[in-house]
């Protein structure tokens, strides 16, 4: 496996302070390698987006990072902890090293500024010496890259369709050639045809430019097709992490197989869809032991009392007593 | 451009309707201003003088309504608003043009300052919410609910007196003649301080509150998170992304309040006996001076309409979504 780009170590994120705090992310460790697409899946409220916001320090209040490290390995130079950067360093780090494509394709662009303004102000913030002409040229280039006619530079967001807006966002994410692009459900707001078009384009761009991707979605079938490795989150923890094909072939955690059973596969033979009974846990009152045990069809004796730890099994790891025994 | 023309024609229509109403309403009010004047002179007017007063006031009983309406428009277009009853025979236009600058300067300047100050503070309070600025909010809520004329009365009671720097009434020292010289201008400024402060204190809180709330709403928009993620400076995110969007409702509020500059602070002018349009209107009301009232209402109507038009233009400039394609 190639060298890591981002290592998340024992990250903990709370919403709120003190006794009222809700633990949204518990002890999550995850490594993104250079050039890979890492999928992050789970139901709503499992902490996928919180993880993405936490590692980039974009958590909206009352979100607080209560522990852990996010080690970033720049292309040249020594690795450093993103969580201990000063505000100024953080500003320089953002977008230049890790860019994000957010889930709200419709609201990610400022409605009162032209596309060109929003593309070039990133360049101005990160490289004040760049001339206006070269900034505009760069913005045009990015639009062309994502398949939007450069004469749309002077358009306002409301003059573009949802798909076009999301492509502008992808172009904007790549404008500083970041090492890592975090995609937080980038295609949820779009129709299925547009979804595949944009993802196809993304795969192509990634092969050309060589950035790594953290792809967050609840659509596991999409991940199986587009990512190298998949991490499944449940109740703020990673319960299973494995190569995409391995998860698809035989998921070790009952939750992963439950998730897989609830989506129709994009390819392959027809099979009956099953759901996962019950609903995601309330982060305020997490079940004892393995947080999935009340919904787990295979729950047995230790599940309700002891929390399983994520333990490696070859090139994959899983947190389940079933596998331990 | 088409949208703009549409708006302009809409306002022209509204202006026509308002002026027509302005013509009709005094004619529907029961009572006769000439009779009022006759009573005022306690029967010392000859019947010949009374007849000529009817003609002068345009209350000629022989003319029908339509002819009166046409001649009213003719007068309006030549800038003739009739003669005032109370200051007979001074033309209404002359009275208004002598009191209008007072109101425009006092209320105009304070409205602009109040908007700028309030919006600025609102941006700060909204962006830094959770800090000490939140402590200001109860104060602003309190101040915005205090009627400004009451604040004026309190200010007069507490701050004016024989030895005080602040004069309690009037627009300038009684011994001075209005002119742009070194005696008159400082006196006018000194007289305007207290009314200006009163208006400022009571109106600035409204701007702070509305701007802060809009800032808080806008701050949770996705594009603000994107702007942060882009590594833009905090200042740029606050100004160009958050405040720029939060400003939109406040700008239309501001344009509307410009329309109320002329008539809106009647009570402050009454409290301070300030020689502005509001004070004039108050006097006209007391004396049943219909031509003067009509003239002042006309000015107020027109200024509200112009302010609305300005609000539309400002919105066109500030919010690209309101611009129609083509």
Short characterization:
Chain A: Keywords: ATP-binding, Nucleotide-binding, Transport. The complex is a heterodimer of chains A (about 325) and B (about 325). Chain A has about 325 residues and is an alpha/beta fold.
Summarize the SSE layout with pairings.
The complex is a heterodimer of chains A (325) and B (326).
Chain A: E1 4-15, E2 22-33, E3 37-41, H1 48-55, E4 63-72, E5 80-81, H2 87-93, E6 98-101, H3 115-126, H4 132-145, H5 162-174, E7 180-184, H6 192-209, E8 212-216, H7 220-226, E9 229-234, E10 237-243, H8 244-249, H9 254-261, E11 311-313, E12 316-318, H10 321-324
Helix pairs in contact in A: 3-4, 4-5, 5-6
Chain B: H1 2-28, H2 33-40, H3 47-57, H4 65-77, H5 92-127, H6 136-145, H7 148-159, H8 184-219, H9 222-229, H10 234-259, H11 266-271, H12 277-286, H13 290-318
Keywords summarizing the entry:
heterodimer; A: 325 residues; alpha/beta; eight-stranded mixed sheet; 10 helices; B: 326 residues; mainly alpha; MetI-like fold; transport (chain A); nucleotide-binding (chain A); ATP binding (chain A); Oligopep_ABC_C (chain A)
Molecular structure report:
The complex is a heterodimer of chains A (325) and B (326). Chain A has 325 residues and is α/β, with parallel strands linked by helices. Chain A has one domain: Rossmann fold (3-Layer(aba) Sandwich), CATH 3.40.50. Chain A has helices spanning 48-55, 87-93, 115-126, 132-145, 162-174, 192-209, 220-226, 244-249, 254-261, 321-324; strands at 4-15, 22-33, 37-41, 63-72, 80-81, 98-101, 180-184, 212-216, 229-234, 237-243, 311-313, 316-318. In chain A, strands 6-7-8-3-9-10-12-11 form an eight-stranded mixed β-sheet, with helices on both faces. A four-stranded antiparallel β-sheet of chain A has the order 2-1-4-5, covered by helices on one side. The longest helix of chain A has 18 residues, at 192-209. Chain B has two domains: 2-77, no CATH class; 93-322, Orthogonal Bundle (MetI-like fold), CATH 1.10.3720. Chain B contains 13 helices and no strands. The relative contact order of chain B is 0.14. Chain B starts with a helix and ends in an 8-residue tail after the last helix. Chains A and B meet through helix 2 and helix 3 of A and helix 9 and helix 10 of B.
């Amino acid at each position: 496996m190639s060298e890591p780009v981002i290592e998340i170590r024992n990250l903990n994120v709370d919403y709120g302070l003190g006794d009222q705090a809700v633990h949204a992310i518990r002890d999550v460790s995850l490594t993104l390698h250079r050039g890979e697409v890492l999928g992050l899946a789970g139901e709503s409220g499992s902490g996928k987006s919180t993880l993405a916001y936490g590692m980039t320090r974009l958590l909206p209040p009352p979100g607080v990072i209560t522990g852990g490290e996010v080690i970033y390995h720049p292309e040249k130079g020594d690795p450093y902890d993103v969580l201990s950067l000063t505000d100024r360093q953080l500003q320089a780090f953002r977008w230049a090293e890790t860019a994000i494509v957010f889930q709200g394709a419709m609201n990610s662009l400022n409605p009162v500024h032209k596309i060109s303004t929003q593309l070039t102000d990133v360049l101005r913030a990160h490289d004040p010496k760049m001339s206006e002409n070269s900034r505009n040229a760069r913005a045009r280039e990015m639009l062309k890259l994502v398949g939007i006619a450069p004469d749309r530079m002077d358009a306002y967001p409301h003059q573009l369709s949802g798909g076009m807006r999301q492509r502008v966002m992808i172009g904007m994410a790549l404008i500083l050639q970041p090492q890592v692009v975090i995609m937080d459900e980038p295609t949820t707001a779009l129709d299925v045809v547009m979804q595949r078009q944009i993802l196809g384009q993304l795969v192509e761009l990634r092969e050309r430019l060589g950035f790594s991707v953290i792809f967050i979605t609840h659509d596991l079938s999409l991940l199986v097709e587009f990512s190298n490795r998949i991490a499944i989150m449940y109740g703020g923890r990673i319960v299973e992490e494995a190569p995409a094909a391995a998860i698809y072939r035989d998921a070790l955690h009952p939750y992963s197989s439950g998730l897989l059973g609830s989506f129709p596969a994009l390819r392959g033979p027809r099979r009956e869809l099953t759901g996962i009974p019950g609903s995601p846990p309330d982060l305020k009152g997490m079940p004892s032991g393995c947080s999935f045990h009340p919904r787990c069809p295979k729950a047995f004796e230790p599940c309700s009392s002891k929390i399983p730890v994520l333990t490696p099994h070859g090139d994959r790891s899983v947190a389940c007593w079933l596998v331990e025994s | 451009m088409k949208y703009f023309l549409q708006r302009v024609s809409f306002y022209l229509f509204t202006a026509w309707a308002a002026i027509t109403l302005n013509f009709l309403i005094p004619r529907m009010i029961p009572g006769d201003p000439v009779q009022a004047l006759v009573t005022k002179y306690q029967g010392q007017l000859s019947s010949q003088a009374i007849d000529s007063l009817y003609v002068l006031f345009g209350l000629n009983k022989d003319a029908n309504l339509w002819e009166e309406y046409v001649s009213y428009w003719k007068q309006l277009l030549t800038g003739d608003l009739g003669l005032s009853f109370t200051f007979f025979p001074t033309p209404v236009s002359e009275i208004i043009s002598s009191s209008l600058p007072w109101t425009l300067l006092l209320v105009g300047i304070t409205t602009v300052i109040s908007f700028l100050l309030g919006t600025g503070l609102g941006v700060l309070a909204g962006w830094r919410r959770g800090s000490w600025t939140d402590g200001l909010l109860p104060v602003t809520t309190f101040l915005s609910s205090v009627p400004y004329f009451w604040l004026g009365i309190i200010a007069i009671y507490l701050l004016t007196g024989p030895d005080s720097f602040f004069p309690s009434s009037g627009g300038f020292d009684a011994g001075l003649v209005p002119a742009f010289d070194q005696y008159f201008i400082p006196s006018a400024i000194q007289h305007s301080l207290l009314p200006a402060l009163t208006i400022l204190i009571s109106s600035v809180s409204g701007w702070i509150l509305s701007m802060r709330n809009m800032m808080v709403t806008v701050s949770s928009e996705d594009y603000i998170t994107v702007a942060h993620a882009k590594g833009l400076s905090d200042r740029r995110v606050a100004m160009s992304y958050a405040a720029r969007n939060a400003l939109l409702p406040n700008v239309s509020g501001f344009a509307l309040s410009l329309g109320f500059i002329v008539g809106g602070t009647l009570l402050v002018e009454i409290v301070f006996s300030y020689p502005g349009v509001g004070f004039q209107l108050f006097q006209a009301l007391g004396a049943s001076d219909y031509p003067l009232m009509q003239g002042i209402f006309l000015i107020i109507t027109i200024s509200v309409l112009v302010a609305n038009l300005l609000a539309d233009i400002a919105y066109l400039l500030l919010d690209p979504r309101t611009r129609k394609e083509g």
